[in-house]
Amino acid sequence: MALARIELPHDARRGELVEVRIVIQHPMETGFRRAPQGERVPRNAIHSLVCRYRGAEVFRATLSTGIAANPFLRFFLRATQSGDLDFWWLDDDEVQGAAQTHLVVSP
Amino acid sequence: MRRRDFIGSLAALAVSPHVSTTDPLIWSFTRGMPVLPGRVTLEVPALAENGHSVAMTVRVDSPMTPSEHVRAVHLIAEKNPVRDMAVFYLGAQCPRAEVSSRIRLNGSQRIVAIAELSDGSFWSDAAYIEVREAACTDGG
Predict the structure, then answer these.
(1) B-chain residues within 8 Å CB-CB of A76?
(2) Are A32 and B81 inside 8 Å of each other by CB?
(3) Cα maximum dimension of chain A
(4) What is the residue-level pLDDT of chain A in tens, covering all 107 positions?
């Protein structure tokens, strides 16, 4: 199970711009690397990532091995109401990952 | 086509584009539409000690309203074995067209960011980055 850390401001006012940052623990294996014994390490990278805010999709990304290990993403969303921010992703081994956090919005 | 429009389209061609629109990778999402330079700002350092993790920010000049917004930003590394690094899908609900990430680079090369706008136009920016140690060198 992949681990992730999401960073959000402590609270936001309604209508405010919120900066979202996420780091996911993932090797993003390129498939070009060799293990010490010489065998090729198979490619395994997160290829899809979705972020939903209160159930609605706010950001989506298609990634590849061109993204560094432990992928970091930063984007913006508009705070409307307090609610959950859900991240979901899928890698080449068909392993899903998810992370959730709560955004507190004051009126 | 009016003569004025035709001359306008010639002017668009005269501006040096960052990418070839007949490149299969570019064609896969532009479908042959012209890619104009401008409106996109791609920020990468001029020099990177190694290519394992390089900070990247891409910004698009757009009001991000339901009628006028950025649909997607495509990030392409010209010399990586996998050239299409990432696609970021934004949409009308995104308040600011700005995305950051960290990219992996196989040596010094040019990075191109292409933004697809809601009106169907494509805009681009390119940045050359000097990479001292490539990311894919170890036995690969």
Answers:
(1) 94-96, 98
(2) yes
(3) 59
(4) 458 999 999 889 999 999 999 999 999 998 888 888 888 899 999 999 999 999 999 999 999 999 999 999 999 999 999 999 999 999 999 999 999 999 999 98
